[in-house]
Amino acid sequence: MRPAGPGGQGGPPPAPKPPRDTKTLALKGGALVAIAVVSALLWWLIRHEPEKAPVADTPAQSGQFQYTLIEGPQVTTDCASKSYGDTKDFFTQTPCTRLSRALYTTETGGQKALVSVVLVTMPGEVTATQLKALTDKDGTGNVSDLVRDGTFKGQGAPKISGQDAAYDSHVTGPEVAIVLAGFYNKHKDKPLLERIATDALRLSGDLRR
To answer: Region Disordered: which residues (predicted)?
Structure first.
């Protein structure tokens, strides 16, 4: 029979409780505090994140003049019926794959101008380059603007396919952008009109939609 332990009861004495690991507890507590601080900081940053600056306009959206769409876009695949002169003959032999036309107005210096923007998509880069070379020449016709073909019937709209009109064009891959511009009320300022026509080339990007 085993001798009685302390207190007069049999069996081994109770094992002493292990000492508390204060170092481990301190580390765990510090980690929890750090997590709480980081979480609070992240939440504050999310709530106080500065507004992102707006993305800069693409060339098709920004420029020197502002334009208002007044007609179109009119879309077709029959370029021959929407053109005249040698340009019509060209499309008869080399059909386009898509044609989009629109009319805009812009005002500057108290003067109002009507602007025709055309985007022609050809089968490839070679035919697109050929089309641009053709329309760049005088007396070779062009794609009919929406005033010339009678689509737009706004009062006082100037003819923008005559000598007083300004013209510009640009080719990108299989696409040819063609712009014609003219002032209302027979106002004449060819250098300004030419600047408007060149600036309006960027609007052709809207005609891809």
So the answer is: 1-22
Count of domains forming the chain: 1
Q: What is the DSSP string of 82-106?
A: GEETHHHHHHHHS--SEEEEEEEEE
Residue of 165, 167, 64, 184 whose CA lies nearest to 113:
184
**Overall size of the chain counted in residues:** 209
pLDDT tens for 68-90 read 999 999 999 999 999 999 999 99
Residue 152 in domain = yes
- The answer to whether residue 17 sits within a structural domain is no
CA distance 102 to 114: 11
Judge contact between 168 and 198, C-beta under 8 A: yes
Structural domain harbouring 180 = 67-206
pLDDT digits (tens, 9 = 90+) for 98-115: 999 999 999 998 999 999
